[in-house]
Amino acid sequence: MTDLSDALAIAADIRQGRRSAVSVMTATIAAIEVRDTSINSVTRIFGPRAVAEAERIDRRIAAGDDPGPLAGVPFGVKDLFDIAGEVTTAGSVVLRESPPATHDATVVARLRAAGAIPVASLNMDEFAYGFATDNAHYGITRNPHDPSRLAGGSSGGSAAAVAAGLLPLTLGSDTNGSIRVPASLCGIWGLKPTFGGVPREGAYPFAASLDVVGPFAGTLDGLRVAYEVMAGSPMPELPAVSDLRVVRLGGWFGANLSEPMAQAIEAVTAHLGGLETLELPEIPRARAASFLITAAEGGTLHLPRLRRHALRYDPATRDRLIAGAMLPSATLVQAHRFRNWFREQVHALFRSADVLIAPATVGEAPLIDQPTIVVDGQLVSARANLGLYTQPLSLAGLPILSAPLLGTGGLPLGLQLIAAPGREAALFALAGALAQAGLVGRVPLPASKDVKPC
Hints:
alpha+beta, Amidase signature (AS) enzymes, eleven-stranded mixed sheet, two-stranded antiparallel ribbon, 14 helices, 37% helix, globular, disordered C terminus
């Protein structure tokens, strides 16, 4: 089978004539059609148009043209990104009769200009409201490492497709952790860029004051190139890791960890020579504020349609959106006031630190038939609580890289690397050093499930 995990290797092969874009695209489509039946990451395949675009890439290369750094690379989009000529459903049947998009989302257009080719839309929680990718209309996306477990959400299809080796690059969105949670549970790289640093035009909104779009990838270098293309400019030169002041977040971020997660973070801390541990104040209130802002903004956005078509929504999504729309305005004002205060507290940490580290989830992916996690000794809903460590940090608008932890001896786990706004370069520098040390990197599937190079 063709190796579809490394976007930059694929692009180099295509540019240098070792593979054609058409052969890569047809292999990608065949892999999805055969292997996605067990994980349900893909909702639509843009087959004929993707092959036609691959043919154009091959013609450009034959004519001596360079299509770009992602020449011929197939990618998938969470089903809330506009693809010209396709209906954007945002994981819901409510939008199924909407007119097709007239333009690509800005980040999709930028990736296409760099030579990449959109080939599939990917499963998600309806309207991005959830951490499980458990969709009443399109089904549950299963974790490629163990199909009896959740892939996380709301960008679960995007993470699972990369983890399964079906696609080397996918797009997701992150409001409260929807890139970081599934990247962690599926053992791949994911990036939530600085709020406002990557254009969101053409991505169906959830909560506009929190929404960020970003990439998933099978390799760190692929993630970096995808991010730079999406942002529209290269990052500054990466800083020397020896110059970075790295601090571990404790308190809230040290409680409720599974034993494998605790051990993995200790290994990273030990490798970095022992880290100072700092605590952020009022984390429970930060999580509550993020929840309230999300609920209110999402509910207000959907209220006109809910009044007409409430019964067409996923019941779990519908009920939460209605509840959000009913929140008193005074509550939302208080949440935003707290957000401003909390953002100042978080940003103050970067006077004495360059990168903060924290777990992305409490532990391994929960079972689908027992979708719970343990928090403070109690079993709680995974769909609502998998963002325990991601949700509070969303308030501050920071760039956060989810790095897959290696050496845990079991299911994937993820580490959040957190920097000040606009400091993505520090995250990639530290992630690269940890990868070189063998502490982080894409977690391989069990041998029976892995994609083997031809």
